[in-house]
Design goal:
Elements (H helix, E strand, L loop, with lengths): L2 H13 L6 H19 L4 E2 L1 H8 L3 H9 L11 E2 H12 L5 E6 L3 H7 L3 H4 L2 E8 L8 E2 L2 E2 L1 E2 L3 H8 L3 E4 L3 H13 L4 E4 L12 E4 L2 H15 L32
């Protein structure tokens, strides 16, 4: 384990006694997004009910989540938006800049590189890398794409904290191994594959096809569901949405 990885593990261990549940951590960015929208509208205070509605949760859950941050609001007034933004930002580590490298500059990687919301949320993209010689040297959002052979150099030169992997599935694990060996301890994975990493490395996976399949499940349920349930036209639906073939019953021979 490198000194950088050791420091990250120590920070994680030090944070554990605070006891903030992972589910709460996952909702904090949603609250922060809603709060930023309130700030843009010039709203100074917000009730738990209003903030919960904006975030898509119930108010009791929101109050419990925010209590883990030591924020309880003021009865009859609510939460001070600016201070709550600061509290959540501090808890998420967004009061400092985090350096990001994006690896894989296909269509998805290019879209990520061109996303303007990183800088305003505390993330600075400092490196773009790809293995395709036709892409290397191209300029995307003010940065020149470098060859994947320079991966370790880019991580070291810029102090990359987070690696975004947007490569094809077959290349993702090898790239992940290299970024971890170079000292990166946080990975955002867009490749359609499960990455194997040491216990001190945090991986977040974003799989658009899985999300679409989950939506397809809910669409199917709205239409009547599988297992012979009725579709929108009152008839059972097959796997492709068409009526299933009729079942023929044959009596068994004596």
């Amino acid at each position: 384990m490198t000194p950088r990885q050791t420091r990250h593990r120590d920070r994680v261990d030090a944070a554990r006694p605070r006891g903030i549940p992972e589910a709460t951590v996952a909702r904090l960015p949603v609250y922060l997004r809603a709060l930023h929208a309130l700030q843009d509208r010039g709203v100074a205070t917000v009730s738990s009910e209003e903030l919960a509605a904006a975030a898509g949760v119930n108010s009791a859950k929101l109050r419990k989540d925010l209590s883990h941050l030591g924020s309880y609001g003021t009865r009859g007034v609510g939460y001070e938006v600016e201070y709550l933004v600061y509290q959540i930002s501090r808890e998420l580590g967004l009061t400092q800049d985090w350096v990001v490298a994006i690896i894989g500059l296909g269509n998805l990687g290019r879209a990520l590189a061109g996303y303007g919301g990183f800088a305003s949320r505390g993330f600075r993209v400092a490196g773009l890398l790809d293995a395709d010689e036709r892409i290397v040297g191209q300029e995307i959002s003010g940065l020149s794409v470098q060859h994947i052979d320079r991966l370790e150099d880019v991580i070291g030169e810029h102090g990359v904290s987070i690696a975004v992997i947007a490569t094809p599935a077959g290349a993702a694990q090898g790239v992940c191994d290299r970024v971890v060996a170079a000292g990166v301890t946080s990975v955002l994975n867009f490749a359609p594959v499960v990455l194997s990493v040491p216990e001190w490395v945090d991986v977040r996976k974003v799989d658009l096809s899985i999300e679409l399949q989950i939506l397809a499940f809910h669409e199917q349920r709205k239409a009547g569901g599988p297992d012979g349930a009725s579709g929108l036209n009152g008839r059972p639906r097959g796997l492709n949405g068409s009526p299933p073939e009729p079942v023929q019953y044959v009596e068994a021979a004596e």
